[in-house]
Amino acid sequence: LAKTTQPISMDSYEGQEVNITCSHNNIATNDYITWYQQFPSQGPRFIIQGYKTKVTNEVASLFIPADRKSSTLSLPRVSLSDTAVYYCLVGDKFSGGYNKLIFGAGTRLAVHP
Amino acid sequence: GAGVSQSPSNKVTEKGKDVELRCDPISGHTALYWYRQRLGQGLEFLIYFQGNSAPDKSGLPSDRFSAERTGESVSTLTIQRTQQEDSAVYLCASRGQGYTEAFFGQGTRLTVV
User: Fold this and answer.
1) pLDDT tens-digit readout, A8-39
2) Closest-CA distance of chain A to residue B95, Å
3) Contact (CB, 8 A) for A89 and A37
4) Would you give the end-to-end CA distance of chain A in angstroms?
5) What confidence tens digit (pLDDT) does each residue in A60-91 have?
6) Contacts of A42 in chain B (CB under 8 A)
7) pLDDT tens-digit profile, chain B (113 residues)
8) Which of A12, A16, A48, A103 has its CA 20 to 30 A from that of B19?
């Protein structure tokens, strides 16, 4: 499984764009990049997944360069409610139909007024 | 059900006692995962099930921990002879075959006194 590296913590202010970068130098050809968000006292929830280039949904955008050795989760105009831990996962979603979901330490984002 | 359900939501037990934690996954989800999360820490992978089989038990911390799944549905995580270091939130997640997103329950907060 590809190892991921993320910043331990980040601070931002309401209304700003936040970019969280994840490094995954050993990503395999069949691996996808997935991000989850976890609020205090809750289980993680899926945010976005991508394979290459750019993916956008109603919550975030995911930018993946051509070499796929890193990815950047972009949160537009954050609010206080975006304060959470964000996890980057890399794995083959089709491997045997299921792959281990290995979470790293994540990035603790604090949004300030 | 509508989501992943875990019970009990909270459990306080005396050191040395056995505990059983239950997870009811989303109906039809064939993959099921157990994690442990200590206060302020990331998710520690314990075990996952593919149907009723557990291809990977490498995350179980010791032989005091065991898990089973029946009917490709409910799963039970059992901790024997609990120790204080077992105190944590135990999270369960399920995922449908070939689907991207894993859905988490709210967790069971275990306190060993």
Assistant:
1) 999 999 999 999 999 999 998 888 899 999 99
2) 8
3) no
4) 38
5) 999 999 999 999 999 999 999 999 999 999 88
6) 104, 106-107
7) 579 999 999 999 999 999 999 999 999 998 999 999 999 888 999 999 989 999 888 899 999 999 999 998 999 999 999 999 999 999 999 998 877 789 999 999 999 99
8) A103
Q: Two tokens at B72?
A: 């490709």
Distance CA A78, CA A107 (A): 15
Give the pair of three-digit tokens for residue A51. Answer: 């394979």
Which residues of chain B are at the A interface, by a Cβ-Cβ cutoff of 8 Å? Answer: 4, 30-31, 33, 35, 41-43, 45, 48, 50, 55-56, 91, 93, 95, 97-98, 100-107
How many Å is the maximal CA-CA distance in chain B? 41
CA–CA distance, B20 with B24 (Å, rounded to integer): 13
Task: For residue A69, give the DSSP letter.
Answer: S
Q: Cβ separation of B45 and A102 shorter than 8 Å?
A: yes
**Strand boundaries in chain B, DSSP class E:** 5-7, 10-13, 19-24, 31-37, 44-50, 53-56, 65-69, 75-79, 88-95, 103-104, 108-112
- Widest Cα–Cα separation across chain A: 45
Distance of alpha carbon A58 from alpha carbon A5, whole angstroms? 25
Provide the pLDDT for residue A99: 62
Give contacts of B98 with chain A, Cβ < 8 Å.
93-94, 97
Mean pLDDT of A31-56: 93
